[in-house]
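Trying the structure run again after the queue cleared.
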Amino acid sequence: MSLRKILCGVLAASMIFSASNFCSAAEESANAKLVRIEIDTYGAEQSGAILDRISRLEKNYSGRNMNGNMNARIEAIYDTLYDNNAEPGILAKINVLEWNINHQVASGGIDSRLVALESQIIGKSAEGTFNERIRALAKATYGTENLPIAQIQIPMNTLIKVATTAPASSKVLQEGDFIPIKVVSDVFVDDSLVFASGLTGEGVVTNVRRAKHIFSNGKIETDFYKLKSLDGQEVEIFTGVEAVDAMTAESMSRGLSLVGQTFSGKNKDLEEVLVRGKNVDLPAGIELYVQTKMPVVVYGLKNNADYDLTVENLVVETKPQPIIEKVGAEDDTLIIIEEPTVPKENPPQQEPAKQEQPKQEPPKQEQPKQEPPKQEPSQESIGGLTEEEFRAVPPEGYDEEIIEIIDE
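Done. Tokens:
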């Protein structure tokens, strides 16, 4: 019986210990989520009492304080920021707005990023919750509050070109250190943007070997394991065969050295890295390729080329309208919509007909020939009679002698 009691006591103690560890792990998970939310919201972890920090986040996201315990309130904010199941989260929307304006995603917290966008688009910082301000920006840029975002699956082994944002040296790095990276080239899947330039990720140093003597050069092995997609999800990545082949094809010797790979062929960068007895000393901006570890569904930005084509079609349709109005309708088969220059040639063809009118003017110039009849009053100056009438019937007071004088 005593042995049984001892075993039961040990079992109970182990259960209590396991429960306490579970509660501790859950509490650490909630705290880790709170820190992650604050970094993405304000750019850095905040100080102060946890409840005050939660209240500030709630006012920014929903405009009011939520009910429930601390963990539940953190989970609610976390879902608002990162959960994309029902609709795109706030990170997805602000990333789309930034890329649409600047063709890259900015770093920093949502608060400062919104202020920058509002200053760039509206001209001043706005008030309200993050969602309200994002809807106003969407209306200003796209003409509608509904952004052109849709879910799409990123295939496994999709290549992404990234670059380091901090220097890496085998002289100072240690195993477990993080190396930040960012996307340097947009990645589209089926005409939808899934990885935008500027999105961040990180890798962890898995092995470091420092140069000790002339026959031992430095070495760094890094595992790049996560990268944010356009909707804010953390996608699992790694440096696989496809990524190594892509770096080899583009002679990215420094990128290969950062993941512990060697490059076959002569390259000055590689010689700098692999000189005997020297540490690997790489500046920021080293480009390399990574690839997705498994298929993942994300929200992507639909390519807006369709909208441009629609605008062009509208412009094309309006051009033939003046042609239809100007071309004569005697024969409909002569109306040519594709040649806008035809209507402009019609007026010159009609001008010769108008220029022929001066040829008809000579008949109007014959009128001076009719002027002699207007001079007949000179013959009527003798008492208002012509010479013949005067001779036939002389007026009173005139004699023949006077007539002769006039004849002379």
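The two ends are 185 Å apart (CA to CA). Worth checking whether this holds up in the mutant runs.
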